[in-house]
Each structure stands twice: as structure tokens, then as C-alpha cells.
Amino acid sequence: MAPMATINELQPPYAVGYFVGSLSATSVNRTLSRALLKLAPSDLTFTEIPIGGLPLYNRDLDGDFPPEAREFKALIAQQDALLFITPEYNRSIPGALKNAIDWASRPYGENVIARKATAVIGASPGQIGTAVGQQHLRSILSFLQAPQMNAPEAYIWMRPGLIEEDGTVTDPGTEEFLRSYMNAFFEYIERVLTVVPSAS
Fold it and tell me: How far apart are CA 3 and CA 31, in angstroms?
């Protein structure tokens, strides 16, 4: 009988790939990403996984992915965990992010998101703070068998001046919350890597 869990000997630092769901150079979520990287534990190393250069996913290409999609999937496969930093568009996630996830999960049986620890966070100029879009994203990640950090939840109301362009958080309470969020993600990654066998 196969063991119910395995002990993973991987030690920190852990590689975290992060997605910024907006393609805009002036996105508040890109600004949020800079703050999160600044406040994260030193035992996490970060690589942005860009999504803007991917063509639209087409099932006809499952047998021969374009180079951009192969490189994209290979970069995800190298990560220990994934962080999604995304706006909410029309009460859902941006089309570019959904397209990227479709490439990452196809063809059937070659889903590179499966079994990777994931966390979701988002910022919005409105007080809803991407809550509905995050729920859609969580549903997608659940289907893709990606373990999710369910708490703390993080819906950031990006008021003017809250986070400077370089990622400096001007409000002490928000800074402490974001630091705690990234500390919790580090702890979650450790738990997932301890008990979830890798996809390889």
C-alpha cells in the first residue's frame, strides 16, 4: 500500500513564482507585488512569471506548443510555490491570467500547477478589494489540484498613497498585515512541501 504522505527533504530558500494578473505597467497590483516582495521572509526567492507574451490558448496546439508556452510552463515547473497577485475584472479574473492558467494546465495530464502551494491576493481602488475575482480564481486552482492558503485572506483597498511605486507601504497597519500574510505563506509552503508528493 502506498504511503499516505511523504516527507520532503527540500530546505529553504523556496522558489516562488508570482503572477501579476494585470498587463498594465501602472497596475496597482504590480505596485502591490513590489511591497510583498519587500516584506517577504528572506527564505523565499521570487521570480515573476510573465503572462503578456502568450498567444491565446488553442486546443489544436496541444500536440505542439509554441515556444512561448513551452518556456512559460518550464518556468512554472521550476517553482516550489505560486503567488497570484491580481485585479478583478467584471467580477472575475483578467482574461490574460485565465489564458495563462489554461496554457499551464494543458494538455490533459501535463498540468504544471498541480500540487504547488498557492496563495491569492489582490488590490483594487474600490473597497471590495478583488474579493469576487479571488473566489473565481480559487475555484480554478481547486480544480487544478493546487493546495491553497485559505487564510489569511487579503483584499487590499488601494487608496492613493498607500503603497509607493517602489513598494514602500506608508500605512503601518497595512505594512504589518502584508508582512504577516507573507510569513503565513512561507509557513504554508513548508507544510505543503512536507506532506504533498511532487508531481515529478
Answer: 43
- DSSP assignment of 88-111: -BTTB--HHHHHHHHHHH-STT--
76-93 pLDDT, tens digit per residue, is 999 999 999 999 999 999
Q: Listing from the earlier edge strand, what are the strands of the sheet with 155-157?
A: 44-48, 14-20, 81-85, 117-124, 155-157
Q: Which of 163, 158, 159, 141 is nearest to 150 (CA)?
A: 141
Residue 30 to residue 20: CA distance in whole angstroms: 6
Distances (CA, A) of 40 to 35, 175, 199: 9, 11, 26
Beta bridge partners of 19: 84
With 0.70 as the threshold, say if the pTM is over it: yes
β-sheet bridge partners, residue 17: 47, 82
- Is it the case that residue 197 has pLDDT exceeding 80? no
